[in-house]
Amino acid sequence: MISLTSPQFIAIPAERKKRILEYIEDNGSAQIKELSVSFSVSEATIRRDLSELHEEGLIERTHGGAILSGTKTIAELIHSPNLNVQLDNKKAIAEHVSSMIADGESVFLDAGSTTYQIAKCLTNHRNLTIVTYDLYIANTVNFHSSATLIVTGGIKKEGRNLLTGALTVDFMRNIHVDKAILSVDAVDVDFGVSDSDYVQAGVKRLIVGAGDKVFLAVDHTKFGKAQFAKICDLNEIDLVITDDGLDSVYRQRMDRDKIRYHLATK
């Protein structure tokens, strides 16, 4: 994470705004109070900086802070998993996943905050073909100039930065990639992998079928849970990548069932 407190940047408005924007890009959001303390300037100064960034179309103002322009609506940030929840673990998972992807491969990235972190870790990979239906990934991550980014067809869901519908399904049925990266709401060793959204679960089933290798990237808090719509059994996943906070109970159960998994460390 970037350092916000370098003295040479604090007194220069242009440099301070640049650092504020970099911070929001890294973390998904920022609060006025934390920025004020980090830069040793008044909250009024931070508000002016955020207003100027907003006028430039780079961020969206929220109550008490800001998020990146083009990110999820405030209502969704409140009612859905936040980009900052388990952030350190998601970054560790992302670095581990990216280390298993080679230059020149084709990769499907599921929608979600963990796959967003994975996308950010792939920006130095060369000649990748990245496929996604996550508009936030497509619009905010700057992949290497040699990479090809493909966004599925589909209908943008109101208030969400992802595509869905018949066009998305048709697209998914007609592609094959080297690595498919899946991210889900819930993992139960016995029930399998599941999601709270029945329609999106259908798309995720197609992701599982589209990859030569399928990686499930989830932090440890998703384990021991089951949601409404089942996506697949765990033995349909080639590799589960989670963090080292995973309870030993789930490790033992996956060992018992011969489910391959890696534990990413911060």
Distance N terminus to C terminus? Answer: 13 Å
Q: Tell me the quaternary state.
A: single chain
- The general outline is globular
Low-confidence stretches: 1-9, 72-81
Mean residue pLDDT: 87
Specify the helix fraction band. Answer: 25-40%
CATH architecture of the largest domain: 3-Layer(aba) Sandwich
> How can the largest sheet be summarized?
7 strands, parallel
Domain HTH deoR-type: 13-68
Protein name: Transcriptional regulator, DeoR family
Pfam families: DeoRC, HTH_DeoR
Keywords: DNA-binding, Transcription, Transcription regulation
Provide a descriptive summary of the structure in words.
It contains eleven helices and 15 strands. The protein has 266 residues and is α/β, with parallel strands linked by helices. It has two domains: 63 residues, Winged helix-like DNA-binding domain superfamily/Winged helix DNA-binding domain (Arc Repressor Mutant, subunit A), CATH 1.10.10.10; 178 residues, Rossmann fold (3-Layer(aba) Sandwich). The strands form four sheets. The chain has a seven-stranded parallel sheet with strand order 6-5-4-9-12-14-15, with helices on both faces. A three-stranded antiparallel sheet has the order 1-3-2. It is globular and about 55 Å long. The N terminus is likely disordered.
Topology:
Blueprint: H1 7-10, H2 13-27, E1 29-31, H3 32-39, H4 43-55, E2 59-62, E3 65-68, H5 74-79, H6 87-99, E4 106-109, H7 113-121, E5 129-132, H8 135-140, E6 148-151, E7 155-156, E8 163-164, H9 166-172, E9 177-182, E10 186-188, E11 192-195, H10 198-210, E12 211-217, E13 229-232, E14 239-243, H11 248-256, E15 261-264
Parallel strand pairs: 4-5, 4-9, 5-6, 9-12, 12-14, 14-15
Antiparallel strand pairs: 1-3, 2-3, 7-8, 10-11, 11-13
